[in-house]
Amino acid sequence: EAQVTQNPRYLITVTGKKLTVTCSQNMNHEYMSWYRQDPGLGLRQIYYSMNVEVTDKGDVPEGYKVSRKEKRNFPLILESPSPNQTSLYFCASSTGTAGNTEAFFGQGTRLTVV
Amino acid sequence: GQQVMQIPQYQHVQEGEDFTTYCNSSTTLSNIQWYKQRPGGHPVFLIQLVKSGEVKKQKRLTFQFGEAKKNSSLHITATQTTDVGTYSCRSTSGTYKYIFGTGTRLKVLA
Fold first, then answer.
1. CA A111 to CA A67: how far, in whole Å?
2. pLDDT digits (tens, 9 = 90+) for A79-94
3. Cβ neighbours for A34, distance < 8 A, ≥ 6 positions apart
4. pLDDT per position as a tens digit, B32-51
5. Contact B97 A45 (CB under 8 A)
6. Which residue in chain B has the smallest CA separation from A100?
7. Do B92 and A33 touch (CB under 8 A)?
């Protein structure tokens, strides 16, 4: 089954404790990205990757890191989480980078930083 | 930077009533996509519009792209309880970046 898998689905952590949210897709998609979703603000792009070893900042990259060592995986790293990073996070992938292909989203990760 | 405004933020309708959400941009959009997110779920692609003035239909859903390619709308005829969720538009912002509208949360009262 074609899918984007995120883990964990729920995470509660303390301020400053490094964490990684994993994302994996089995569709051989070139493009992957991370979004955060907050009430009233919609989905905002954090980072994206056009292909292996190629990543770039989205609209809200502060406090996050990513890597793309393999085509299927695109982890999101919070080196020192803060309470303002409490949010619902989605990973997405798509087949192309031209901006005209549909995105497939993971199930989401609800992160709480206390 | 580029912004896509979406209205309304919330809409409550009685089952059987129509519903419309609008996305507006200050700049010309190359294309626009629409997504639906059920409560507790993830966004799911509905459709993409590319051409100026384009209109597409999916059963009770009608999607339009403005003539100037700066606005788009999603209209649902005779809403059903299965239509509940958040509807969001998405477009490109630059070559590889994407921007979403703020979303419209639809609640359908039976």
1. 20
2. 999 999 999 999 999 9
3. A23, A45, A46, A47, A48, A58, A64, A66, A74, A76, A89, A90, A91, A92
4. 999 999 999 999 999 999 99
5. yes
6. B31
7. no
